[in-house]
Amino acid sequence: MDIARVHHDNTLTILEKQRIKHKTWRSILQHRLKSSSLAQESASKKRFCRLSIEEIKQWELSLERLLSHTYGQAAFKIFLQSEFCEENIEFWLACEEFRKIKSPAKLASKASRIYEEFIRSESPKEINLDYHTKDSITQNLQQPTYSCFSGAQNKIYCLMENSSYPRFIQSEFYKDLCKVEARKGTYLKA
């Protein structure tokens, strides 16, 4: 086989994979937008979710702005999946839900699930935490409070803010999303 042809074929494969990846990101985001909107809409009404380019551009201002928007969370999670670190946002979101729980019994149950899923060594979605933070959480699980995951959640937020978020804003995925919405001059339909 000719080495130049193999190189050419590999280059085409890489370019094709990149095109597919961008299409896949858009498709996944559209699907997630649709799924979350459908879950929220009443059975008797059809509604449209409007996500303007101005809203998307607001995500550049801070991670807080990005995470305060449902579709920003979805887009960021898709990006993190492409970097194989989606457990960070999943943990952060689980902690946000945890703080909204009213029942002490449900609080203990949810604390245990969060620990098993994200904190326990070799758990399916183990997040990167130091020994002291993990140990503190383990001790707090005896009598969980709303703040038992706060230290870990803050560390993961800082990790995302300083590492993943800047890469997201500079990513082709985010730039593509901005270009598509700017070009359409319309809104994402959910």
Could you characterize the architecture of this molecule?
Helix 5 (87-98) runs antiparallel to helix 6 (104-119) and helix 5 packs across helix 8 (150-170). Residues 1-12, 36-48 and 186-190 have low confidence and may be disordered. The protein is mainly α. Helices cover 71% and strands 0% of the residues. The chain contains 9 helices and no strands.
What's the layout of helices and strands?
Blueprint: H1 3-40, H2 53-58, H3 63-67, H4 70-82, H5 87-98, H6 104-119, H7 131-140, H8 150-170, H9 172-184
Helix pairs in contact: 1-4, 4-5, 5-6, 5-8
Sum up the structure in keywords:
elongated, 0% strand, mainly alpha, 190 residues, disordered N terminus, disordered C terminus
Largest sheet descriptor: none
State the secondary-structure class. Answer: mainly alpha
Backbone CA Rg: 20 Å
Please report the number of helical segments.
Answer: 9
Q: How many angstroms separate the termini?
A: 49 Å
Coarse shape: elongated
Note the run of SSEs as H and E.
HHHHHHHHH
Uncertain residue segments: 1-12, 36-48, 186-190
The residue-averaged pLDDT reads 80
- Percentage of residues in helical conformation: over 70%
Strand content: under 5%
What's the β-strand tally? 0
Q: Nutshell version of this structure?
A:
With about 190 residues, the chain is mainly alpha-helical. The chain has helices at about 5-40, 55-60, 65, 70-80, 85-100, 105-120, 130-140, 150-170, 170-185. Residues about 1-10, about 35-50 and about 185-190 have low confidence and may be disordered.
